[in-house]
Here is the input.
Amino acid sequence: MGRFDLVIFDCDGVLVDSELIANRIFAALLNELGASVTLDTMFERFVGHSMADCLVIVEELLGRVPPADLVTTLRARTNAALAVELRAVDGVAAVLDSLAVPYCVASSGDHDKMRTTLGLTGLLPRFEGRLFSATEVARGKPAPDVFLYAAQRMGCAPARAAVVEDTPIGVQGAIAAGMTVFGYAGHTPAERLRHAGATPFATMAELPALLGAPEH
Here is the structure.
């Protein structure tokens, strides 16, 4: 019997290379509204959070309630950029092909966002019926809720699930769920992922061996 019965993937930054695109657009919009943010700010404060949590951070940065159409404007601009620029994370299709156990997605994004990005990259057919969103549970990451929900729906005990994440917030949530976490250091420094509790790796080519490695 293998080490894991299920592999749970985060979506943005793990399956689809959307983080730089989306956060560039988000930062530009916030700067238009009067906040002074950089791409580094976005990765430190926003990445990995649900939109509901992001809006709380935006209100703190602006010192006022953000415009009512912020999310609509952000989504429209982001989708336009993604349609032109988005690609699957390099090597992730080969990882999915290599897996001998079921896999699914547990994302802070809503279903529309997941279906858009996975659809644009051709990955959606691989995940039909196995998309789980933080919008379906009480608390978003770093709470463990979406990971526990995904494992329950997939019929897997948390201790038998592996999670692939790219943000410290996501790593913390998966660790809190009692799962083993591998941290993709595509845009997040490996040390930050390790500090949060993950085993970091630099390229997707490394992941199949990690998933198949025996427990120490």
Observations:
- The radius of gyration is 17 Å.
- The chain is about 45% helix and 10% strand.
